[in-house]
Amino acid sequence: MSRRVLLSIAVLAAASAAPWVVSNPSRQNFLILAMMTAQLAVAWNILGGYAGQVSFGHAAFYGLGAYTSSVLLIQFGLSPWIGILAGGVLAMLFALLIGWPCFKLKGHYFAIATIAVAEIVQVIFTNWRAVGGAVGLYLPLREEGLKAFVFHASKLPYYYIALGLLVLTLLVSQTIERSFLGHYFRAIKDEPEAARSLGVNLTRYKLVAIAASSFLTAAGGTLYAQKELFIDPGSVMATSLSVKIALASILGGVGSLFGPVIGAGILTGIEEVTRQFFGGSGRGTDLILYGMIILAVAVYYPHGVIGGFKAWSQRRAARARSGSTG
After folding, report:
1. What is 240-297 written as a DSSP string?
2. Where are the domains of the chain?
3. What is the pTM of this model?
4. Which residues contact 57 (CB under 8 A, 6 or more apart)?
5. HSE-CB for 240 with a 13 A CA cutoff
6. Under a CB-based contact definition with an 8 Å cutoff, are residues 112 and 210 in contact?
7. pLDDT for 74-124, tens place per residue?
8. Counting Cβ atoms within 10 Å, is residue 105 exposed (0-12), middle (13-18) or buried (19+)?
9. Please, what is the end-to-end C-alpha distance for the chain in angstroms?
């Protein structure tokens, strides 16, 4: 068994035991939020990291997942487990619809287009009375249980559901990374014209990337809706949420499997610290820190935390070799 597999098993075991070691409810909630953010960052990384299509509109997919499962539950009594699939499919279809024209744009033009699309979706839902409009939707209180996806006595089940969804997203990401799709995505990101000359259909594989990314992002939206039992456009479709999702992956290291998980842990920690130190008066402080982090990463660690660690390891190994030969 390889060292990487053993390390992954050890990390998974530690993550599974963490809620029992950390008994404080607020800290358990922090762990849940960190898991949820990590799952979204890993999903974003499929499109933004591997395929190189930087999106700042993923909150639209997240919100579609949250609203689809919530409306199906409120209006038709359908299980949120079915809502996860329905929301994922709807978000995927929407992603394919907007991806076709948006992928004709390159670089920052594509990023701006994704922001515009997300803003349009948020405005539509804010003024759409059938789904609650600006007031939002309150999910009905039901008898708790895994089948109902509702837990009142303890938040621990949400932790393990978030962990399971994160592990599933990591497995999907790893499968893509090691398959021919991963090679195509990296070719599209690094040398698009060379990939085109070799017969790679750029638009087709970009659509594959955004489809997988949007489906998994929408699943995270359903989890949020069930955990909070309330959603509105400002909480599940805000541009700041899209920025946070992208930044978690960028900070940890785009194009790497576990970089987004590390970045999510750092950003969630920043949110928690600003909430504790500033409370309501610190609204927006986390966004200021996000901006400072972006500048620091761009200047000192352009490949993220993972890239910085690899570079440090390589320099240390080079010094060790030079020392032994000297």
Report:
1. HHHHHHHHHHHHH-TTSSSHHHHHHHHHHHHHHHHHHHHGGGGTTHHHHHHHHHHHHH
2. 3-237
3. 0.91
4. 113, 114, 115, 116, 117, 118, 242
5. 14
6. no
7. 999 999 999 999 999 999 999 999 999 999 888 889 999 999 999 999 999
8. middle
9. 36
